[in-house]
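Cross-posting from the modeling subforum.

Setting up a comparison between two proteins and wanted a second pair of eyes on the formatting. Protein 1 (sequence, then structure tokens):
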Amino acid sequence: MPPGKTQGVEEYEPKKFVNREKELAMIDERVLALRRREFVSQTLVSFWGVADIGKTWLLKEIEHRYQYDPTKANALAKPTCALYYDFSEHEQTVTAVLHQLITTITTNLSQPLLTDERKQKANQLIQTENVKESLEFILSLASDLVLIILLDTTESVNDEAWQDLEVNLLEPLLKSNKILLIGTGRNRVLRWKRVEVRRRATPIEKSEVSPFDLEATAKQLKNLGLSQKLTQELYDDSAGTPGLTTKLSHRNLELSEKRYREARVEEWNAYVEDIFEHLSQLPASFRQMITAVAPLRYYRSQALRLMLEKTTDYSDDTSDVFLLRALRKLDKKSHLVWWDDHHNAYVTAVAARRILNRHLQIENPTRFIELHSFALEMYREWAKEFQTSMPAYFPELLFHEATIYKSQRLEPDNKITVQNYLNLLDTMSPDNLDILQRRLNKDEELQDLVPKLYKQLLLHLEQLLEGAEAK
């Protein structure tokens, strides 16, 4: 299996595609501007995310949308031509990429853009390793149409090859201000070193490919021609990860209910091994760290240490210095953990965190409740001791309490004592209420978990802020 590729993923078909409106709108905006010959400052987009999240499907949809169509050319807007290259299936050299791009151009273009002279030149270039002339040929075409170069599975390229690609291919193309480059990979931060390249890159917080919500999962199953009766269960089992949803839905069709219960564990085990595979170069304890904090949405070294102390097979250092260094290394070396400026804490990729939790919940439900109960008490203690940090602790108190009830097949909205949380809001300063309001407004996970309570708390919070402003 090529690095970065996941087995059993459904072949892309336009009619099966669903969701990704935000990502496609980002691309549409840039393509439209380039078609009108307008300047676009960020012509490099790197879509990133964990395995099975749908990065290749997104790239294939972009390729489909912007395939060359001579009827779309007019005096005011240039036509488009999307060129796809998968690093996991082809050579990872500058000449190999250029040859493939030029081949795709000659296959897709027609008169009047692809003149006999240009076609002859293209055929000559494919037989040579002349990087300079190949680049000049591509750039000459960019005057007449919008070239959208799609680079898939970028994480499979080694550092040396990547540097060569950046210097001798990507930077010259980006400097033209006429070409849109879109890459996909698991790495959160690509290895851009050239100032000119980094200047044209879209911020990483705008290009994460996230899991589907329940509604998108239902639409995905419909587009695949599968039953939507089990949408909720499949959504829970896949954590909204579309590739895993597809594989689990097929398993569900093929197997009895009992056998499916066993098969989904096999799929989770395979998925966990896949996402942890790149950590093999790091100490084994690093994997234990990610697993230990899986119940937590946000954490620093202290929370990591407390969760590790609940892990019986962890025997490495638990000092703050060691754990902080480990977190920084995970941030730099993995696509699973990174520092989140908005929450001022480390986070684990949502899909990975949810699948690790779901796996534990099914395999060891008692342990699952124990860990979330421990996290709940941890936040309760911190909320008492550090009241000024309540905006950070409040959502996590609610999250872990609701998660415990839901794991017991109880409706969190009906079981949680609302007054306890209303009382907490009443003790908070206007500044902290304002911070909390902004956090809750962006917390889609909590909104899905306790929809009624979520609305009630936001309403009470708004009333408190209005009252404070009136004073």
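Protein 2 (same layout):
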Amino acid sequence: MIKRIIYLFFYLIFSLNAIVSQTVEPVLAPNWVNKRPVNSFKFIGIGVADKTTGNGYQNEAKKNALFDLSSEIKVDISSNSILYTAQNNNQFSENFNSLIKLTNTDNIEGYKLVDTYENDKQYWLYYELDKQEYENQKAKKKQLIVAKAVNLINVSFTDEKEGNFTGCLKKRIQAFGILSPYLNEELAFETSNNVKNIFELSNTIQKQLHSITLADTKLNQVIKPYQPNYKPISYKLVIKNKINLVDFPFIVKSDNENIRVNESASSNTNGEIEISIKYVKPLNQEIYFTLNPDIEKLMSGDSISKSSIVLLKQFIETAQLKAFARVSPISVFVNCIEKKGQEENDQKIIEPIVASKFVGEEIKIVEAKELADFIIDAEAITFKDISSDILFTNYNIQLAQLKIKLSLRNATTKELIYSAEVSDIYGYGNSQETASLNAFQSDKLKTKLNESLFFLKRKLIVY
């Protein structure tokens, strides 16, 4: 029994030793995780990502490592660079350097993976980039980029001679975008038209944008308030006061809070730009819209980064054009005919009721058709009702019926916009004349006429 116990004791000891020998010791974090390496010949980038955030932690660590690597690359601002000039003119923005660093992150090549490390919570990456190799690659890439930009600039002047304004401008903006990573450097080049650096290129772009003008700024367009639908108002855009500006996008804005417009518009093949109006309140005054060249939309189909356009807009002032218009009340002429049978009704009952519905700052009654935007025709005529003879025979009472025909027309086009007939209005009396007068005085007349006038007015204005 004692031998068996001793045997079991030794068996348990051997088993435990076997288990212990199979246990994997935890991997210790390498030195570069705890202490950043220093190497005078290498750029170093170390990135870490949280593994609990999902499956993309490896890409996140790589992005962080490359950004760290680019941060080691010193960005010097040359005293002859466009950024230095902007800084001295108090136009420098601190985000320029960060944009350049972001560009560097996208364009870094030749880096090598040195090591990785991970534990239950984190994933680490360690990259190195040889400094001399980086400088050599950068010099080669710069040479190719400058050559490409010079070619675009040269071709842009050919487009300009051929009258291709949009193509010319797009090539110059593309050239600026290509050269934008070198805004912090002194960069000189030779073109066929004496554009020798980025600063001169940006000035050329600005001058070209400022050559856009409105053909006739004094020609006022008239806008009416509270319209159900607005027809676009048109202006003519030209280059240097003579050549039509074709297919060019603009940002349209109204500085007046009482007017809302569609903020995007483009000139057509005739150089005409149509501004779409959404809403207008009564003003009775001259207003204007500002038109700014929409560079983002112009370049939307081209390979130029948004950050490059942001940079360009810091160095140029885009041409801000003013397109004038006038907000005026809607002019209405009321043509009213009132008859008692075949005779004119001198009391003029209908006309004041119609006119009273068109009083306000958004609409006005005019005295001549030639001054009107719209014409309201109201024809009110009484006639002997079919039941009048029976009533007269039995009760010595006459019955007259009043009918009113209403119509609304566009004064210029003569288009019929609204029509209605007001009927079932009656008047009683011992004669047809008295019955007709009573029909014009009927309370039912005012109620039914006002109802029709409400719908007619809705065709003119919508609050």
